[in-house]
Amino acid sequence: MKKILIVSASLLLLIFLVQKFELLDAKAENTNDTSISKRSDPLKKKVIGIGGIFFKSKDPQKIKDWYEQHLGMKMNEYGAMFAFRSTDEPDKKGYLQWGPFSEDTKYFQPSEKEFMINYRVADLESLLEELRAGGVEIVDTIETYEYGKFLHIMDPEGNKIELWEPVDSVFTKLYQGTTTH
Question: Which residues contact 101 (CB under 8 A, 6 or more apart)?
Fold first, then answer.
């Protein structure tokens, strides 16, 4: 339960930070404060949001059932999907996946951590080149699916990070009306 609370608190903090950053960016667009604008422009080309929060669980189905019963989260086969609107294009939906994994999953390797965060990115292929040039540890190669491109990297503290260039329209078709809002 402690792990779940930590993961949930981390999710809320990340959402708060993303929203705060978007407010700063909007402020920079509406003022002549170029220091904020210069600082945020490079990030727009890289991470554009949170795509998922994944964590290890002793019993993923039991924990999904608990969250559905007590917190009203609508579940799919992977956990709960949250729909949101893009601040740049409000007519478009984006998605964030919350998902428990079995505690013996190998998916988070080589990290030994009990969680993994998925970041939405704008241009994964260009970002990969920048990461390589910057000496970032690349775990695998880009994999492409109908719902987007994926790549895994490691941060300096041993956290495996999933980078995702999404194709949100696929999720809109698959999960229309079945997401947690």
Answer: 54, 55, 56, 57, 60, 107, 108
